[in-house]
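Job type: complex structure
Entries:
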Amino acid sequence: MSQIKSLDDLRKIKEAVQKKIQLREKSIDPEKVIQIKVGMATSGIASGAREVMAFLIEELEKRNIEAVVTQVGDMGYCYAEPTIEVTLPGKEPVVFGNVTTKKADEIIEKYIKNGELIDGILPANYHTI
Amino acid sequence: MTQIKMHLLVCGGTGCRSSHSEGVSQALNESLTNHGLDAEAKVVTTGCFGFCEKGPIVKVIPDNTFYVQVTPDDAEEIVKEHVLKGRKVQRLLYLDPEREKTVSDDRHMTFYKKQIRIALRNCGFIDPENIDEYIARDGYMALAKCLSEYTPQQVIDIIKKSGLRGRGGGGFPTGLKWEITARVQADQKYVICNADEGDPGAFMDRSILEGDPHSVIEAMAINGYCTGASRGLVYIRAEYPLAIKRLQIAIEQARTYGLLGENIFGTGFHFDIQLRYGAGAFVCGEETALIHSMEGKRGEPTFKPPFPSEHGYMGKPSNVNNVETYANIPVIILKGPAWFASIGTEKSKGTKVFALAGKVNNVGLIEVPMGITLREVIFEIGGGIKAGKEFKAVQTGGPSGGCLTARHLDTPIDYDNLLAAGSMMGSGGMIVMDQDDCMVSIAKFYLEFTVEESCGKCSPCRIGNKRLHEILEKICKGEGTMEDLEKLKNLSQVIKDTSLCGLGQTSPNPVLSTLENFWDEYVEHVVDKKCRAGVCKSLMKYTIDAEACVGCTACARACPVNAISGERKQPHTINPSICIKCGACMEKCKFNAVLLQ
């Protein structure tokens, strides 16, 4: 640890360490940021949901998009795994099926960045209470 | 590259640790490693979440899942289900008792809905043993701002404008205290933190020191800058080993970063902090006694003035504030006095931390805005009275406070309203009582405490409290007279008026407030020789209803002193001169034949 000798030093350290607790900061008010839920039941994991989730976390950060990526249980779309549900602030959740890393990239670029709807949206088959 | 996608926050406060939360963190870590998930999820030990009723607590981020009463054996299931597959472990979720439904995350828990966490902002959020996590939450930014952008007087003005008052009990305006210490000229001054939390059942300061020690360190340094002191001292009781350990770690880390020591932020300001241990005497929470104890003298108070701000530790000007007061300072500097003053009532700004205890469903540590009503605290945050019983009283302010009743439930809580109602804010103990609590016994309990804790220097406190206690004992035994009640009142008033320090000046409050609010109950003890709560054993009598008794002999066999006699299949009787009123017979009887009067 080096000594902090000025306000700038402190700011630099803050920036460097902020990532450590960023996950916690964002979860205080998740409605304000983009929320992505990745279906991670057995069928999801078997079709590559873990890779998709890791890809999403990494890429969103690289592209400076504030989002909370959460893993959830089976969403019921076993025919279209891996599935992810994306909720943009103030909008209804949208579920995408058969998400590969390539598809995930498209979702980030088109839907998350521009709100543009793309292929692969699954009809919502449930209501949450 | 794998990224951490989940944080498992495990409470590391004294409450949860005593129910083995350390074992839980360890088991979680082991299980994560076994499943190869240690690069994806991280276990973080934090300070107190406040929901001590259901500890140990494990909170999963980012979905805010709030697991309660987690044991080390549950760790494997949490990892296999939640971390690996994203399925919440239903049986560990908090069950909302009213709706009988599990609550999936803490944002939907009634316990948290009315709380505003300012002093506790980092408790249960960061790892208190890691200065980086504090810095990530704007830690030491307030100190940097003060040193580089404000003059000492400007900082004092900010604190004054915020309306912050001392959280240790007295409610003295903090900014004013700082200004007085700053004005006195001296070659050496001291910043003192009063961490001698002594009220029975109170653990606000302990939790802050355990969960967020850096906020206190930062605030003390800010105070040093304002008052011109280069040395800080924390007076902490030795019974708080975990708080001491975390403070020591925090001080060491701050020194390594150069946030304590010489030439802080390159501004030429020097400040360092040392710890002083107390032996747990209640009177040492009084500032003059505290200072004497730190000087190695007997922990006895002296007459004020002179106040410590002028003549304190080693005769030098010393600014004494309580832990919670300090914990508010960095946020006030960063968010501004107007923000702070927007919370609370006209004369009491901000929030107050309370240790909610007694007969409520949700025992724990809460932080609420000033002006909230007792009803909201007890029935919403506290979840109501245990076992659906009836609310009787709430004791605030510890041994210096008083008991408030149902008619005070809608009174907004602030310094002045509590005083007007015959109690006080105190440091934040709040003990809820139900129909099974005898108010005379409660007053006696607190007097027992003050008699034990009185330092004995002045006679009103040393002798007066002892006499008060004797009269209360007499009443509880059923030997009291109406004259005794008058004596209680008069003696209490004399002790209040003539005692040397705050301990004696407030010690009769529990007696006076119960006399005022529960006069009937005192009269019942004295005239009818009855204790309606069934607490005062001398006033109780166990009898057997001859018609209901079938002569099964269960009670006679349970009686430890052979006070019950009677033939098999014949009604039994209890000999009152032998009976020790333990209640064992009543528990054993299947026919409800044992009666309590």
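Summary: The CA atoms of residues 35 and 106 of chain A lie 17 Å apart. The two ends of chain A are 49 Å apart (CA to CA).
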